Amino acid sequence: MKRHPALVFLLLISLALVPASHRSEAQGTPDGPQFVAGEVIVKYSVGTTAAEKSRAMARANARAVERLSRTPAAAARGDVDLVAVGGGLGVAEAIARLSQDPSVEFSEPNWIYSPEQTIPN
Predict the structure, then answer these.
(1) Rounded CA gap, 77 and 43, in Å?
(2) Which of 6, 9, 74, 121 is the most exposed place for a label (fewest CB within 10 A)?
(3) Which tens digit of pLDDT belongs to each residue from 38-68?
């Protein structure tokens, strides 16, 4: 899977801007990466319609919480949404279901980044 530096930067900034009321407890392993429980970042393919997004969300028992691709340049590469997973599904199961949808380019946990994980230049 190819990562785009601008998209990664956008996701990091948007994580910092998510109000504390939207954040729930972290999940992951003590020594491994942490992510927000019940939240997934979803990137749709370019040109995905609202109906296709609704179908993908229904497949994962999820609802869109926030649009992360806010600029026209970012939206031109496909919308990126923060979604809340419901219906008793875990993050891993929601990602597995979303990955089966042709309108979803990728989905991943809402990773938690801390200053200790970065190296300043």
Answers:
(1) 9
(2) 121
(3) 999 999 999 999 999 999 999 999 999 999 9
> Which residue is it, tokens 């997004």?
53
Reported as a pLDDT band with limits 50, 70 and 90, residue 80 is very high
Distance CA 68, CA 88 (A): 24
Per the document, the length of the chain is 121
* Tokens encoding 38: 């019940």
pTM of the model: 0.68
Residue by residue, DSSP assigns 67-121 as E---SHHHHHT--EEEEEE-TT--HHHHHHHHHTSTTEEEEEEEEE--GGG----
